[in-house]
Amino acid sequence: MKTIEYYMNLPYRLEIVPDPDEGGYVACYPDLPGCITVGDSMEKAVSNAEDAKREWFYAAMESGMEIAEPMLQNSYSGQFKLRIPRSLHRRLAERSKAEGVSMNQYCVYLLSRNDALEKVE
């Protein structure tokens, strides 16, 4: 049986963002649903996040909940195949050419920009 210490030592991704409404920072572990805390400073948010993670594991184990292990970066190749309509392919190719970059670079830019905007909203 896996212990709390086993899970505490796994590399769960911690996200910390400023809290514009209350001040301070909000910290959460995306792989651990509902594991969220706050801190007045970045350092306090990190410290509180470790405490929250430990308590989250205690509660999950006590209730018999399955605990997902973190998704590792090296499990992703960075490549995927995508089929798109010809008209979209043409527009992307034209825009990337106008920007002076490869279509691959232009698509990475568009995806990254959209991902960043989603996090802000």
UniProtKB/TrEMBL annotation:
GO terms for biological process: regulation of DNA-templated transcription. InterPro entries: Arc_rbn_hlx_hlx, Ribbon_hlx_hlx, TTHA1013/TTHA0281-like, Uncharacterised_HicB. It holds the Pfam family HicB. SUPFAM superfamilies: Ribbon-helix-helix, TTHA1013/TTHA0281-like. It comes from the Bacteria. Gene3D superfamilies: 3.30.160.250, Met repressor-like. This is HicB family protein. The lineage of its organism: Bacteria, Bacillati, Bacillota, Clostridia, Lachnospirales.
